[in-house]
Amino acid sequence: MEYSKNYTAEDQHIDVQNIMDGLYYPFYMEYCRHDYIREVLGFDFVEQANKGIYMVLSQYSIKFIRSLKKNDNFDVTCSVFTDAQGLPRLHFKQSIIKDGKIMATAVFTGTCVPATGGRPYLPEEMQKNLTDAPSLEI
Q: What is the pTM of this model?
């Protein structure tokens, strides 16, 4: 399932070249991904942190294709994939799209860990929402 949210490039994210600083692309992707994780996967970061479960990133890669500019309106997409090797991690494929053109693509990989330390895992309640998710080889 592809999930999408709409954003507008904020003035403070624009650099001296009048384009969005590359630092902010992952932030917009994070906003979308967190909403997806909460709304679709049923994992509320605040609630789970209070229970001692942290969801963390283990890696990501991003490809910049075109630059966003001041006041650009764009969509950020998010799709989840399970791990092809069966490891307790999720892969989130994301894109930033403006006027039907891909501006950036990325894959974020994350897992859950106990707040007290320990091995990575995916909570059972989250796994229930992943039964139809395809797998992704990284």
A: 0.94
